[in-house]
Amino acid sequence: MPGRLVVLEGGEGVGKTTQLERLALRLGRHGVQVRMLREPGGTPVGDEIRELLLRPGPPIPPRAESLLFMASRAALVGEHVRPALARGEIVLLDRFFLSTYAYQAGGRGLPEDEVRDANAFATGGLVPDVTVLLTLPVASGLARAATRGAADRLEQAERGFHDRVEAAFHRFADPAWQASHPECGLIVPVAADGSVEVVEERVWRVVATACPEVQG
């Protein structure tokens, strides 16, 4: 079976990490070899970049921020993602390129074409098989995130930034936008409201449809 890259995306507090863990367990019960990873991080250099990016402190200029995310991504793809795909594993990734479009292009206002070119360089043109886009009103997501403890640097950003990120994610669900951005692959929006179990079923239906071989 060929390897598959499945990405979970969305704004703050939508439940990506929880759903990624539940999806990994479910795939494991179907006998699928799974590799679960997150961005930024996942490698020695990526973990240091993650600490720098998320630790509250002085503002990081938008272009520098974007390039730091790209550097972490380049290390993760080279060291873990591509080798796992070559072994035929299902790679479950907590955030990928779509977050750069949302946070750095949409939220920070960086030129989309420059962000796209930088990502192509960082990933060697790797395209996800499917991206599950968890959707939740920004106020609800931020309220959820607040229950996890101290806010990181991105969570502390002003509300207008989070509104712009939410608007960007909303655009990504449009088939016309996806058709004009083939570098992002298939993007399927999934409502993140409701119980953890209900959302899990929604996510599973998307993944099982996009990757039917995972059902055994």
Question: Can you summarize this structure?
Answer:
The protein has helices at 16-29, 44-54, 62-86, 97-107, 112-123, 138-146, 159-172, 175-179, 196-210; strands at residues 4-9, 34-38, 90-94, 130-135, 187-191. It is α/β, with parallel strands linked by helices and 216 residues long.
How would you sum up this structure, described in words?
There is one protein chain. This protein is of the alpha/beta class and 216 residues long. It has a single domain, classed as 3-Layer(aba) Sandwich (Rossmann fold). It is built from nine helices and five strands; from the N terminus they run E-H-E-H-H-E-H-H-E-H-H-H-E-H. A five-stranded parallel β-sheet has the order 2-3-1-4-5, sandwiched between helices. Helix 1 packs across helix 9. The longest helix has 25 residues. It is globular and about 50 Å long.
